[in-house]
Amino acid sequence: MLLYHVKEVLLKFYQDDIARIVALVVLTLSIVVGFYVSSILGLIILLFFINGCAAAVFTLNHKETVGRYLQKLKDFFGYKDYDPLAASQCDVCGNERCPRHNRNALIHEPWKGFLIEAPLDDAVDRFFSHILDTFVRNWHSQITPDEQFMLGIKANLRDALCRLLIRAKELDAPTVITTRLLPTFFIHYEIIAKMMLVDHVPMDRLAKTFLIDEYPIHPAVLNRQAEVNYLRGVAKVLIPRLFTPENINCKIFFNLIKELLSFWVLLPLLDVISDPNLINLLIIAATDKRPKDAASRAKSQHQKTSCEKVEILREFVERSRERVECGVETVVVQGEENILKDQSKLYFFMQFLIKEGAVEWLRFYLDVGEC
């Protein structure tokens, strides 16, 4: 059994071009060192390479067993995993294990103190404005010139973007890369390498062979409609984490934001990410070591130093707020009943104040009115 595994590993090692090149380089290095420096040193280099390959193969084939032994080793030496969420304090009472207050509640007005560079803010402003002008304003302007609806959407988009950025900052990037991205990448690499090197499948038949052999594929790559349905599901998962429950309970708002995220944010983003030309350009730009022109370096340095930071999407929201304040007339209803005398209106008003945490103001007003 052991001999069979060794033969299988050596066969895969031989069929991999990169592995053959690395092995050839190490073997050449050990021979050169053995002839010109020391035969023992050359043998040590070769043995270290063989042991490293064997250890890597053993670790990849027995990941769960190695993980258990590493955990036991950590426990033996007293190392504990750090959980930043468990160590965070409650915003209300300061207790680290608060069972009373809702610590997963969305941040109210997350844009306060959130500063970004002015060019980036202008780019995001133009992006959101293009989405709203194309998808919302073209039909909303035919119904009413009231800007209050657009102001509400803009304010919610700004809040959602800030909450998304805050959550992105809380992600543990090394854990996501090592536990999610790298295993998926290596699984795809092994499948494609087997199809091309072992089965000798031509490049133009890889996709058909992948489907015929019933390899697991992502549901979004079947066709365009499947991709849209998948992105709608992603949007449904994102919306409760980005918008307040008051907005989510409104079906019109929920469906509108779901379509905006699906068709105007996630779908173009997925098309850009899956473009191989863009990926190649990014790789070339990241690995290009040619010295830049002195003038371009000085210009970029000047732009970095002169960029001022502004509150995120402040102008984006303020434009609609100014239109509301300047262009909308206040309609006064004659004979309007006092909300404090109507029990049904007062009940809903108190429920709203309880959600906003401002019910004390109503009690104070009622106490003053009784005096």
Query: Overall 3D geometry?
Result: elongated
Q: Tally of extended strands?
A: 2
Note the run of SSEs as H and E.
HHHHHEHHHHHHHHHEHHH
User: Quick check: average pLDDT?
Assistant: 78
Relative strand content: under 5%
Reported for the largest beta sheet, the result is: 2 strands, antiparallel
Which strand order spans the largest sheet, edge to edge or round the barrel?
1-2
Structural class assignment? mainly alpha
Number of domains: 3
Tell me the distance between the termini: 93 Å
Number of helices: 17
Helix coverage percent of residues?
A: over 70%
Spans of at least 5 consecutive residues with low confidence = 328-337
Q: What's the gyration radius in Å?
A: 30 Å
Description:
73% of the residues lie in helices and 2% in strands. By secondary structure, it is mainly α. The chain has three domains: 1-77, no CATH class; 115-287 and 306-330, no CATH class; 336-363, no CATH class. The chain has a two-stranded antiparallel sheet with strand order 1-2. The longest helix is centred in the middle third of the chain and has 26 residues, at 118-143. One of its GO terms (cellular component) is late endosome. Residues 117-291 form the PXA domain.
